[in-house]
Amino acid sequence: MAHGPAKGIGRWLFTTNHKDIGTLYLWFSFAMFLLGGFFAMVIRAELFEPGMQIVRPEFFNQMTTMHGLVMVFGAIMPAFVGLANWMIPMMIGAPDMALPRMNNLSFWILPFAFALLASTLFMEGGAPNFGWTFYAPLSTTYAPDTVNYFIFGVHIMGASSIMGSINIIATVLNMRAPGMTLMKMPMFVWTWLITAFLLIAVMPVLAGAVTMMLMDINFGTSFFDAAGGGDPVLFQHVFWFFGHPEVYIIILPAFGVISHIIPTFSRKPLFGYSSMVYATASIAFLSFIVWAHHMFMVGMPIGGELYFMYATMLIAIPTAAKVFNWVSTMFRGSLTFETPMLFAIAFVILFTIGGFTGVMVAIAPSDVQYHDSYFVVAHFHYVMVAGAVFSGTAAVYYWLPKWCGRMYDETMAKLQFWISFIGFNITFFPQHFLGLAGMPRRYADYALQFSDWNMVSSIGAFIYGSSQLLFMFIVIRAIRSGKQLSEPKTWEGAEGLEWTVATPAPYHTFTTPPEVK
Amino acid sequence: MSTKPVKKTLVKLLISAVGMFLFALFVMPPLYDVFCEITGVGGKTGDAYQVSDAGVDNSRTVKVQFVATNNGAMPWEFTPKVYEVTVHPGEPTEAVFYAKNRTSRDMVAQAIPNVTPFNAAEYFHKTECFCFNQQPLKAGEDAYLPLVFIVDRDLPRAIKTVTLSYTLFDVTDRVDESLTQLN
Fold first, then answer.
1. By CB distance 3.0 to 4.6 Å, which of A86, A161, A173, A438 could disulfide with A22?
2. What is the CATH number of the domain that holds A468?
3. CATH assignment of B44-173, given 2.60.370.10, 1.20.272.10, 3.60.20.10, 3.40.50.12780?
4. Is the peptide bond before B117 cis (omega within 30 degrees of 0)?
5. Could you tell me which of A26, A251, A89 has the C-alpha nearest to residue A259?
6. Domain-by-domain residue ranges, chain B?
7. Taking CA B19 as the corner, what is the angle to CA B16 and CA B20, rounded to the nearest 5 degrees?
8. Per the structure, how many domains does chain A have?
């Protein structure tokens, strides 16, 4: 057996071990989650009552922008890369990732990217204030000077994501245990394989978009400047060509996690495995041909509006196939409701609500009403928070016992689930009403008729926010003093290679590949 | 652990990533321009048009409206001299816009044209236009800016009214930059 981890800080700085790097990713993403959450609290505190209370409108704009950027690129994406690092080698019976040194690099450039981004908060001119979608010319002609820090930050996180994806693809394609054919791979591995291809296809496009911004701002080109013959609408096309696959990059690994947890606590194999694989692949393909549904209001010809509307609604079909498969997996199963399962079921219900509102905003003629309103904010928080974040939380509860060989406090975790679930819905459900009543997003103030639901939403946000501190407490307490476990299987219904290794998972696993029948 | 197949995968994926970056930078913007030019989406009009001797279609008339807008805080006075003309397709017509630099500094402007409805854009030709060049005006100076256009005989019959809109951008800084770069 090979040696264990090195001592001291060097273990973390120079590590090439997939479990160490996975841990780093997970802690980093949680730190970013708290930072982005803090920004969200500032937003909700300001919107608690109409009028200007706590921050200036300029700062409010910085908060909405930074909240979006930090949550998407700093919290959710690295969280799932962390899970991939921890779980993929263990799930496919590989000793480590295929390119361990690149793995170290792709993690360690991330803190620098976010240091660049966060440092702009303390600079003259303030942080980026043009929304997380950074539409030109807001992000070029009218941007604060700190936009250059933002651009380099995005370049670095793009490089990190691309390296991480290359690593995942190289691992999955080359290092599976003998006998594990592609169609025998666990769903989490499948969803990540497809996600990694999406990342390699679109992260460079994002890098291209910010590079064009950089040149427009500093080198006198006019990609997005109408005065020089460019077109700001081009920016939106390039951005959403990245941006739409990006939302599936966030949600597909979450689908993978749920496809493990539901069978475990239903004590039945996943219903319709191969249809799950094909549905994932179809969603990934469709994500490339629907981008302009984010831009129904730019003045597209009617043919374009219709095409993007129908193509978008098509995505509901493979997504519904997945939801039905999860429900069918639970049907007549011997269900128990441990915390991961609670989060998984909440995921299925709330994600489906988010999916339905997604179909609503996909309908071009009615999108005229929803566009840039709080309805859209409610929609994407149902899929991003109740989708990706709930799934990530479920994954941590599900695999934490395997990672550290200690059990979390089930009672407290269930309490945390219910506080999250209720807090989340109090926060975001009223935003549907606000949006339908016409409240626009991204403003620091609002008309008086929106006061009541905004106050409710803010109260919900404080509840949901505090439930995340409870989550941190539960996890830290489990790691330090949770009940020790030794059985390989924490959950009796769990299947898969990761549950065949000792608990806690040894520093090196599968140095000799297992045989998969 | 970097075995041969892993390296092969790595190289392929790296090339794809770099390829997508170059695609975004060098293919997407020109592709978008070509797409807009062919379909007229965005209402962009073409460069100077060479008059072809196709004759005038006297059987119908098209109303052409003129709109002048200042972009952002552009302080010039900028209006069409005539707001609307009625023309026969194929007939070269002159229109004049008036611009006055009301500030106390020398400025350079660029007018960007746009045609509505967008499917008229490819049938709206300009043989002469102040928008082909930048327009410098000294402090307090004014000018009449000429434009000669032809509405194509092939303009779909359903279109009875075409709106030509100019947005005036302040490009003084842009010009100064290129001058300092030259010096």
1. A86
2. 1.20.210.10
3. 2.60.370.10
4. yes
5. A251
6. 1-39, 44-173
7. 90
8. 1
pLDDT digits (tens, 9 = 90+) for A47-56: 999 999 999 9
Mean pLDDT estimate for chain A: 95
- Sign of the C-alpha dihedral computed for residues B37, B38, B41 and B46 taken in this order: positive
Q: What share of chain B is helix, strand, coil (3-state, %, to 5)?
A: 30, 35, 35
Residue A218 lies in a domain: yes
Domain containing A125 equals 20-499
A54 is a domain residue: yes
What's residue A475's pLDDT?
Answer: 97
Q: Cα–Cα distance between A206 and B17 in angstroms, integer? A: 11
Q: What is the pLDDT of residue A444?
A: 95
Asked if the structure places residue A321 within a domain, the reply is yes
Task: Answer whether B71 sits within 8 Å of A226, measured CB to CB.
Answer: yes
Q: Is beta strand B62-70 parallel, antiparallel or unpaired with respect to B161-170?
A: parallel
State residue B182's pLDDT score: 45
Cβ atoms of A307 and A289 within 8 Å: the answer is no
Which residues in A have their CB inside 8 Å of a CB on B?
95-96, 98-100, 162, 165-166, 169-170, 173-175, 200-205, 207-209, 211-212, 220, 223, 226-231, 233-234, 237-238, 241, 299-301, 304
- From the centroid of its chain, how far is CA A101? 25
**For this structure, is A248 an active site residue?**
yes
Strand partners, A458: none
pLDDT in tens, B148-177: 999 988 888 899 999 999 999 988 887 765
Output B13-18 pairs: Cβ under 8 A, ≥24 positions apart. Answer: B13/A165, B13/A166, B13/A169, B13/A170, B13/A200, B14/A166, B16/A200, B16/A201, B17/A162, B17/A166, B17/A200, B17/A203, B17/A204, B18/A204
Please count the residue pairs, one from chain A and one from chain B, whose beta carbons lie less than 8 angstroms apart. 111
pTM of this prediction exceeds 0.90: yes
**Which residue does chain A place closest to B17, by CA atoms?**
A200
Distance (Å, whole) CA A48 – CA A395: 33
For A189-244, write each residue's pLDDT tens digit.
999 999 999 999 999 999 999 999 999 999 989 999 888 888 899 999 999 999 99
- Does residue A346 lie within any of the structural domains? yes
ipTM of the complex: 0.90
Question: A271 with B80: CB under 8 angstroms?
Answer: no
* pLDDT per residue as tens digits for the range A287-319: 999 999 999 998 888 889 999 999 999 999 999
**CA nearest to A392, candidates A70, A78, A37, A96:** A78
